[in-house]
Amino acid sequence: MTQMIEGQVVAAFGRRLEVRDASGAIHSARPFGRQLDAVCGDYVRCEADAAHGQLNAVEVHSRRTGLFRSNSRGRAELLLANLDLLLVVVAPLPRCDPFILDRYLSAAHSAEIDALIVINKADLDGLAALQESLATFSTLGYAVLTCSALTETGCHNLLSSLAGRSGALVGQSGVGKSSLVARLSPDAAVLTGELDRKDTGRHTTTAARMYDTAGGGRLMDSPGVRDFAPSIRHLDSADLGFREVAAASPDCRFADCRHMSEPDCAVRGAVDRGAMDPRRYESYRRLRRLQDELWTAQTPSTRRTPGRPR
Ligand code: GDP
Ligand code: ZN
User: Fold this and answer.
1) Any ligand 1 atom below 6 A from CB of 146
2) Phi/psi of residue 117, each to 5°?
3) Is the predicted pLDDT of residue 307 greater than 80, yes or no?
4) Disulfide: which of 85, 173, 236, 262 matches 167 by Cβ 3.0-4.6 Å?
């Protein structure tokens, strides 16, 4: 058995990992000890455990990025590591919930992962209305790509945006994420069956697998990733990952302004002047209240009070 292997986790099913080394060979490994938490996308060092005839992943190298979800018990749980691009999928049907879109975009912004909006099902009526309703996001600088997993229109644009990068498709159920994964990666159709919600047990993380895409990129995917609820705890506390809030906030009177009811708030000023979309601001407020509830429930004494002057 090989003594030592460096590689990337390309599949994680709870405590079972598949690690791809630099030559492309795949090795089975197990995380060593309870503390070692390796997820899909992680770079790990593995050592042979001759006594048990297996490879142990003994070290996880530092992560470029980490995407966290809120699990069924409300705890933050690492979902994917070293992700470069979050592709947030919407469609004319099911009807797009812009608040869900905001949540994914703010999670990506806070995690320093690029995000792009994918309008799927371009073959359906209602495309133009959806494109129009997403104009705010283009103004904010988000790229919006239009495609159809059914007719394959526009899928080459998705492949180019993934070239040389690792991405994941997320969004509401039914928008066509699994169909897109199957379109973008020749391997995915063959391998997805094994991933169907296997994450049972206390110490297991969501099963996920990384696929090579036809255009020289990677997709990380699993049923648990596709419509995950982003962890509110991991949102950037100053702006909750809202780009326009981040841009306006240096002009707020207080350095730690929460942009809720503080005086001389530049973010509210931007909304009043028509420079920030009121719907986005309402979405920001919802998320802020959710975050407050979370902190109050868990750490009542450490809640900070605003009012520190610049
Ligand atoms: P997911 O829940 O986001 O993974 O969505 P699925 O990939 O399971 O797709 C949901 C439904 O939408 C299925 O019936 C697909 O056949 C259909 N679908 C997916 N992509 C397209 C598309 O581009 N156009 C149309 N018309 N239907 C699509
Ligand atoms: Zn403010």
Assistant:
1) no
2) -100, 130
3) no
4) 85
The set of residues, in sequence order, having a beta carbon less than 8 Å from that of 37 and lying 6+ positions away, is 31, 60, 78, 205
Q: Is the CB of 174 under 6 A from ligand 1?
A: yes
In terms of residues, how long is the chain?
Answer: 310
Which pLDDT band, with edges at 50, 70 and 90, does 302 fall under?
low
Tokens read off for 125: 């009526």
pLDDT digits (tens, 9 = 90+) for 59-88: 999 999 999 999 878 889 999 999 999 999
Class of residue 197 by CB neighbours under 10 A (exposed 0-12, middle 13-18, buried 19+): exposed
Of all protein residues, whose CA lies closest to atom 24 belonging to ligand 1? 121
- The three-state secondary structure class of 200 is coil
* Pairwise CA distance, residues 65 & 306, whole Å: 29
Q: Is the CB of 124 under 6 A from ligand 1?
A: yes
Rounded alpha-carbon distances, angstroms, from residue 302 to 62, 211, 239, 288: 28, 42, 19, 16
Rounded to an integer, what distance in angstroms lies between the CA atom of residue 48 and that of residue 168? 31
Average pLDDT estimate for 89-97 = 97
pLDDT tens column, 247-288: 999 999 999 999 999 999 999 999 999 999 999 999 999 999
* Ligand 1 pocket check for 183: Cβ under 6 Å: no
Pocket test for ligand 1, best of 152, 153, 179 (most atoms within 8 A of CB): 179
CA of 253 to the centre of ligand 2 (A): 7
Residue nearest to atom 12 of ligand 1 (CA): 176
Burial 247-276 (b: 16+ CB within 10 A, else e): bbbeebebebbbbeebeebbbbebbeeeeb
- Work out which ligand 1 atom sits closest to the CA atom of 182: 7
Q: Are 257 and 249 in contact (CB under 8 A)?
A: yes
Protein residue whose Cα sits closest to atom 7 of ligand 1:
176
pLDDT at residue 203 greater than cutoff 50: no
Question: Which residues are CB-neighbours of 82 under 8 A, at least 6 positions away?
Answer: 8, 41, 42, 43, 63, 64, 65, 166
